[in-house]
Design brief:
The complex is a heterodimer of chains A (228) and B (262). With 228 residues, chain A is mainly α. Chain A has 9 helices and no strands. Chain A has one domain (9-227): Arp2/3 complex 21 kDa subunit ARPC3 (Orthogonal Bundle). In chain A, 77% of the residues lie in helices and 0% in strands. Chain A is globular. In chain B, strand 1 and strand 2 form a beta hairpin. Chain B is flat, with a radius of gyration of 24 Å. Chain B has helices at 6-10, 20-36, 41-57, 62-86, 107-133, 136-145, 150-179, 186-217, 235-254; strands spanning 92-98, 101-106. Chain B starts with 5 loop residues before the first helix and ends in an 8-residue tail after the last helix. Helix content of chain B is 70%, strand content 5%. A two-stranded antiparallel sheet of chain B has the order 1-2. Chain B folds into 2 domains: 6-141 and 232-254, no CATH class; 149-217. Classes of the chains: A mainly alpha (228), B mainly alpha (262). At the A-B interface, helix 1, helix 2, helix 4 and helix 7 of A face helix 2, helix 4, helix 5, helix 7 and helix 8 of B.
């Protein structure tokens, strides 16, 4: 929410996010120069993340919350490009839906666009190296991306509002406890949904995933055999 | 899903002819004054004046604006209750015991949480002003004036274009699923939603590929050129924005000592 994060923290998180965004923009420029066809496809992915993050997930407690949707993009396009997509999505959430804000955007870009996706991307690549089951791997990546986003958010809030007794750590624990109640079930649901989404994509348009180097043709053949 | 995008309102607002840089200056300036304000008075004045500007000058229906304001208010109230019991300092005001934890609200934490609520409320009103008075197309031309990277602006414009297509498709798929009892029960909901995401992605990707062919057919060379409508900045409106921001800054200095519990 706009205005919630006091100075100097909102400036601090903007500064922390800037190098990642610069790196993302640099990669974006390189991708677009090399493969002209990448831009419309990246745009599709960005719009997809926006629509996904404005969907409401079914949750156990009956309350509704928003998935981050960035785990999917991180698996498809890598961590840094996802930061740029997350920035654009956050601008649209602020200006089209009045979710979030401009001063708080730096902190949100860092938690939702940098920390979560980078961890998801590293985990996915590592899982691929050790030949983890593709769906389990995608579930873990999406689950951790969502969860880690909220761990970082709690940390950001705790830094800005340390508790009177116990300071940073006890305030971090308090924010974590609040988010854990609502977000752990949601992160599991998001993980399952992203994994099942991949299943549908593999069923209908596996060529997209091979082209983006998300899956190799070998893995794909193996998955097809297992399904048959 | 939220079908009401603020852009729909912004496209017909009363201030759409005003230069977009001026509107962004007013909104961002007010947001910064709110964030830096040491007392809750100035943000509340900004919230009230923004409400007048949005309803009076931008001609947004008052009941529509009231409905929009409910979202940030609900969030701000819950977060400020957390801050109220978490931070401390000053005299204890109220103590409550929950699950063996003793939670205390003190004068200093009450001051902080009121300040945060006021800041959030004021800054959200200013954000609503930007969102409701400046259609996205005008934001793109400001991005161009700021010399942001071309790829970034192009990507933003394409995403903007696709958002509306996908929301339409997502609603259509969702309706079709609801009619077939797709969301009856938790397990079915998870399955239906993944099917929605999967088929949305596949359709979306197809759209992207089709668009590529269409753009190739029109000699796409990696750049989008867009025409921008220039509205000259009138001195009167520039002076109005300047004096509003200056007035708010002065108020913020005047009221810097004003708190609930001194």
């Amino acid at each position: 929410m706009e205005g919630f994060l006091p100075s100097p923290w909102w400036q601090f998180w903007w500064l922390v996010s800037l190098p990642f965004l610069a790196l993302g923009l640099y990669q974006l420029r390189k991708i677009v120069r090399e493969r002209r066809e990448a831009l419309p496809l990246l745009a599709v992915a960005g719009a997809f993340v926006f629509v996904l993050s404005s969907l409401k997930l079914p949750s156990v407690t009956g309350s509704c919350s928003h998935p981050t949707g960035t785990g999917l993009s991180a698996v498809l396009f890598g961590g840094f490009v996802t930061s740029v997509l997350a920035l654009i999505v956050l601008i649209y959430q602020a200006l089209l839906l009045a979710h979030g804000g401009i001063t708080t955007m730096g902190a949100n870009v860092f938690s939702m666009g940098v920390a979560g996706p980078l961890v998801a991307w590293i985990l996915y690549r590592a899982g691929k190296q050790v030949n983890l089951n593709t769906f389990v791997n995608i579930f873990i990546a999406a689950f951790i991306a969502d969860l880690f986003t909220y761990v970082v958010t709690s940390f950001q809030l705790a830094l800005a509002f340390p508790a009177a007794e116990g300071g940073l750590l006890s305030s971090f624990a308090a924010f974590m406890a609040i988010f854990a109640l609502t977000q752990v079930p949601l992160a599991i649901v998001e993980g399952v949904i992203v994994a099942l989404t991949f299943k549908y994509i593999i069923d209908v348009r596996p060529d997209i995933l091979v082209k983006l180097d998300v899956l190799t043709q070998n893995t794909l053949n193996r998955l097809k055999e297992a399904a048959a | 899903m939220d079908e009401h995008l603020l852009d729909d309102l912004a496209l017909n607002n009363g201030l759409k002819e005003v230069d977009s840089r001026l509107k962004l200056l007013l909104g961002l300036g007010a947001i910064l004054i709110c964030v830096f304000s040491p007392s809750p008075v100035t943000p509340l004045i900004i919230a009230a004046s923004m409400a007048l500007i949005i309803v009076g000058l931008a001609e947004i229906p008052p009941q529509e604006y009231a409905r929009l304001l409910l979202i940030p208010v609900a969030f701000a109230v819950t977060s400020c209750i957390v801050i109220l019991f978490l931070s401390g300092g000053g005299e204890p005001l109220y103590t409550v015991s929950v699950l063996g934890f003793t939670l205390t609200a003190t004068t200093a934490s009450a001051n902080l949480s009121l300040l945060l609520m006021a800041r959030t409320f004021g800054a959200m009103s200013a954000l609503f002003f930007i969102a409701l008075s400046t259609p996205m197309i005008q934001v793109f031309s400001v991005m161009k004036d700021l010399r942001l990277p071309q790829e970034f602006i192009d990507l933003s414009m394409l995403i903007y274009r696709f958002i509306f297509i996908f929301i339409g498709e997502a609603i259509a798929i969702h309706n079709a699923q609801v009619m077939r009892n797709g969301y009856a029960g938790f397990r079915k909901s998870v399955d239906a939603l993944s099917m929605l995401c999967g088929s949305l992605f596949i359709r979306a990707w197809g759209r992207g590929e089709e668009m590529l062919i269409a753009m190739d057919a029109r000699c796409y060379d990696g750049k989008f050129e867009t025409g921008t409508e220039e509205h000259p900045v009138s001195l009167l409106s520039l002076a109005a924005v300047g004096s509003y921001l200056a007035g708010c800054s002065i108020l913020s200095l005047l009221f810097s000592g004003a708190v609930l519990f001194p």
